[in-house]
Model the fold of this input.
Amino acid sequence: MVKNEGDRLERVLVCSPMTEYFSVDSAEKHNIFEIADMATAVKQHEALKNTIKNFGAKIINIEEMPGHPNSVFTRDMAISTPHGYIKPRMGIRTRRGEEDWIAKFLDDMGVSCVGRIEEPGTVEGGDVVIAGHVAFVGLTQRTNFDGVIQISELLEKMEYEVRPIVLPSFCLHLDQVLGILGPEMIICCTHLFTDDYFKGFEVIHVACRNHNVNLICLGESEIIAPAENPELIHITRQAGIHVHEVELSEFAKGAGGPNCLILPIKRG
Done:
């Protein structure tokens, strides 16, 4: 279960790219900018999994959903909480059905479903970031107003303080511009947030050239960052963070970063 995304990562669910990620009938429809090179993408995903394994976390690896090239991005398909998972409703039509698909795996693993987003609401996992007693929620192109209301009600019942924010259209998900570095430490793209939004947290500000601080928090002051983002790596290392660099260029072609490629099941 996940109470704080800054806690030590213990168990994650991933989906290795094999065929579907490279079988894109319409790049625009799937929000995939460029077809990835298969050999390179497979190698990069293996390196990511090995880094997580070497840290000591357990990996559950599932096969891609047929006809769904974005199913490698498992983060968006469910929201992990201390009590179980919340089943979202995808905001992009070509990903609809992935939430049902991954729910079957979670149910089989014994993870309880503790809520679901209903039509007309849409919520994707990348727009919900849980940090201690606070749940940050992004209103984006993928998570709509009705979805924000529904997810807020579910999280408030778990005694989270929900802090919603409206993000500009260039932000695909909240986790592109807000990253967790530890239980009480955050990195964010400076100009998008007010000073009081992160009240109670230590904050590192970065002027994101590409509006991207997407990373995986392994535990307090230890992260995985994409090698293609040297500014993020430099700033976090200056702050005393232990950074594992992993090349993930082939997943950037699908508008994804390291955090998009994992669904945390347990942190502690």
The chain has six helices and 15 strands. The two ends are 8 Å apart (CA to CA). The first helix runs from residue 27 to 30.
